[in-house]
Amino acid sequence: MSVIIALFNQSGGVGKTTLTQNLGYHLAVRQHKVLLVDMDSQASLTTFMGLDPNQLEKTVYHAVVGEKPLPIHDDIYHMALVPSNVDLSAAEMELVSVLMRELRLKNVIEPLLPKYDFILIDCPPSLGILSILGLVAATHVLVPVQCQFKSFQGTDLLLRTLTKIKKAANPHLILGGFVPMMYDIRNNQDGQIYRAMQQQLSPVGTVFNPVPNATAFANASLQRQPLAVYAPTHRAVIPLEQIVDNLEKLGA
Fold first, then answer.
1. Where are the domains of the chain?
2. What is the DSSP string of the chain?
3. The predicted structure's pLDDT at residue 121
4. Which fold has domain 3-250?
5. Which of the chain's termini has less CB crowding within 10 Å, N or C?
């Protein structure tokens, strides 16, 4: 059975897109068939994967609004990608009066389930309809949380949102865990926040080992590469591999 993971946090700048790309890559090199879906109109994932959003004729917008098949770009670092661009920003308004709009992404993903082991959905940093589409389509949700007080504090709202989604639209949605992002071991506040995550969030879901704050992620993105391609021995590769160890168990 395909594992569909929505990477979601209503806050921006927490490393969600970076995590999506890199986890997808590590799953792919372990011989899993991986599809990434860019549900953010900023199209950062599309750009990180080497496509120019402005040059695309078909994107996820045409699938969720026009009910067309998902446009898939194959074999990008062993992964497939459904791209996005600014057109997706109009989807929220266009879907306002659509019946059963929450199922639009789920419906176009379902025909692809036999083809992929893992489908990773990069949700936008908001609580709007595009994030809801991703969460309704998903079997699991993975939450990146920046090791900063404001980001950590926002997990209360996020968990309430997930509870509402489970109650109203996707009762089978499973919380896959929390990924502490941009962790600086030299910063006392980061350490305090990480320990608070472990204490307060562990009863709700797995708190993974933190992904370090590293300029190599930005440099890899500029080169349109996953970190393990750009810098295979970088220390941040280890926690990414550890997360993937757990993700593989979801599909067992």
1. 3-250
2. --EEEEE--SSSSSSHHHHHHHHHHHHHHTT--EEEEE--TT-HHHHHTT--GGG-S--HHHHHTT-PPPP-EEEETTEEEE---GGGGGHHHHTTT-TTGGGHHHHHHGGGGGG-SEEEEE--SSSSHHHHHHHHH-SEEEEEEESSHHHHHTHHHHHHHHHHHHHHT-TT-EEEEEEEESB-TT-HHHHHHHHHHHHHHTTTS-BPPPPBP-HHHHHHHHTT--HHHH-TT-TTHHHHHHHHHHHHHHT-
3. 98
4. Rossmann fold (3.40.50)
5. C
